[in-house]
Write a structure and sequence with these properties.
This protein is an all-alpha fold. The protein has 22 helices and two strands. A two-stranded antiparallel sheet has the order 1-2. Strand 1 and strand 2 (63-64) form a beta hairpin. Helix 8 runs parallel beside helix 10 (163-176), helix 9 packs antiparallel against helix 10 and helix 10 (163-176) packs across helix 22. The longest helix has 29 residues, at 215-243. It is globular, with a radius of gyration of 24 Å. The termini are far apart.
Length: 516
């Protein structure tokens, strides 16, 4: 009797199992996006036949919906296929980063670093470390979604914990908390520029938004959400993985790894550390040089500069140079030809993603070209405005709308441009600073992106998950992400609520309400 009761699934297990079963009814990603592509062809042609247009606030002219089966649309489809594939936004970042990370993994550098860094760490600390590091990792932009999850899986495995819990927790922390960080990032500067641009149409645009206008809110959010992510990994995700019998060993398992390092490995780490320091010093000298090409025209780095556009390159160097030094010292890299060979092994693992990137690129390019994305976003925003909500309920509705639209429009900058054009001027007229609307957008912009198949990085994580569960589908991944989405959204909204009712400044010089 006791064994029967112990084996009975909990309520949350039943809910998540239902989500997984329903989600797994979706076609495979390639077929799914192929069908979505065809849907955009049909819908755009039908909508365009009625002469539908959308007026994007800030534009002097209306924007027509363009049909894919028109003459212009057919020309776009036939001439743009290769460019749509090569221009698929995550493609260049994924391939570049995976070349570097794959080299570091195959030389043994990552395994050695994890063993020496976490070998003596208490096991209970790891989920919270993954949560805090994942939240802060948005400073690396989209690269964080590629780097943190597999590293977290290796950390968990090295500590004797379930590696899938680290993988899923790392992705959830990075993705669901993407819009916040204890560090000032290029995203802060990007959002600030958009906020100021759309607010300047008003006679009194409120306080100008700077990259640090949301810093106090971001700092509080990043700490709380990082700890929350750790709690969910420790108390919800990992226990469920154990209960449901998810394998701990990957299908492509290498030789057994022990905590103790061999003398050659210690020497390799020393060489890798020296190589990293020399690389960092060279980059630092280039940055502080007064006439540095990494500075912007004003001689600084914010709000935009070549340095902020070089995150992928800096990460590439940060992995490749130490990996070569380590590999040379331990004997994995014996000649120059070994480096491209090891990189080629890493690229082979991306074959599935490259195939999917082809259809994803076609879908996104067509969706943007037809202007259906703008039509959906603006129509949704205008609908919420027409309801006539006032005060804080308006911001709750705004955050919900952002979360829903985020399921379809993954680019934060694109979504903020569309929503800010409507809501920032409206909220300023209601007596709220544009920086507060921006803070509310952060809540809605991130939490739901870890559960939408339109997020291309979910395909990368699904590939890693299938190393442990070959039969896992998109529904499996969505079910595993669901326990993060609702708590993240509610807690993040609660933090904003505290700031609102306590009338706390969101950042240096940025209050919630405009001065009467």
């Amino acid at each position: 009797m006791s064994e029967t009761r112990a084996a009975r699934p909990s309520r949350i297990d039943r809910v998540l199992n239902l989500v997984e079963r329903v989600g797994n009814k979706l076609p495979e990603p390639f077929l799914l996006f192929g069908l979505l592509f065809l849907a955009v062809v049909v819908v755009s042609t039908a909508v365009a036949a009625f002469g539908t247009t959308v007026r994007i606030p800030g534009d002097d002219e209306v924007t027509p919906i363009r049909g894919a089966l028109s003459g212009e649309g057919l020309e776009f489809l036939f001439t743009g296929m290769a460019e749509n594939f090569i221009g698929f936004p995550p493609l260049k970042t994924v391939v570049t980063i995976m070349l570097a990370v794959g080299l570091a993994e195959r030389t043994g550098l990552l395994t050695a670093l994890i063993r020496v860094a976490f070998g003596g760490a208490p096991r209970w600390v790891l989920p919270y470390a993954v949560g805090l590091v994942g939240i802060a990792a948005s400073v690396m932009a989209d690269s964080s979604m590629i780097i943190i999850p597999p590293l977290a899986a290796l950390v968990f495995k090295a500590a004797g914990r379930h590696p899938v819990a680290g993988l899923l927790g790392g992705f959830a922390a990075v993705g669901a908390g993407y819009s916040t960080s204890p560090l000032v990032t290029s995203l802060d500067a990007l959002f600030a520029g958009i906020s100021n641009k759309v607010a300047e149409v008003l006679p009194d645009p409120g306080t100008a938004v700077t990259p640090v206008s949301n810093y106090y809110f971001n700092l509080a959010s990043s700490i709380v959400l990082g700890l929350l992510a750790g709690l969910l990994i420790d108390k919800v995700i990992e226990p469920r993985l154990v209960r449901t019998g998810v394998p701990r060993e990957a299908s492509e398992e290498g030789p057994a790894v022990t905590a103790a390092l061999e003398p050659a490995e210690r020497r390799g780490l020393a060489w890798a550390g020296l190589a990293f320091l020399l690389t960092a010093a060279a980059v630092l000298l280039l940055v502080v040089w007064p006439d540095s090409p990494l500075r912007n025209d004003a001689g600084g780095f914010l709000p935009k500069s070549p340095l902020l556009d070089s995150v992928t390159t800096l990460i590439f160097l940060g992995f490749v140079v130490p990996a070569i030094a380590y590999g040379a010292k331990v004997g994995v890299v014996r000649r120059a030809a070994d480096v491209p060979k090891l990189m080629a092994d890493a690229v082979r693992e991306l074959a599935g993603f490259l195939v999917l990137a082809f259809v994803l690129g076609q879908f996104i390019a067509l969706f943007n070209w037809t202007n259906l994305g703008s039509w959906v976003a603006v129509s949704g925003a205008e609908l919420l405005r027409a309801i006539g909500l006032d005060g804080y309920p308006a911001f709750l509705g705004f955050m919900v709308l952002a979360s829903v639209l985020n399921l379809f429009i993954i680019s934060g900058s694109s979504l903020w441009t569309l929503m800010a054009s409507v809501f920032v001027p409206m909220f300023v007229l209601l007596g709220f600073e544009p920086g507060f609307a921006q803070a509310a957008f952060r809540v809605g912009d991130s939490a739901t992106q870890i559960m939408t198949p339109l997020n291309p990085y979910m395909l990368i994580i699904l590939g890693y998950l299938r190393r442990y569960e070959p039969a896992a589908g998109m529904g499996t991944l969505v079910a595993r992400m669901t326990p993060f989405v609702v708590p993240f959204w509610l807690v993040w909204a609660l933090i904003l609520t505290i700031f609102y009712f306590a009338d706390l400044p969101l950042g240096p010089g940025m209050d919630i309400r405009t001065t009467p």
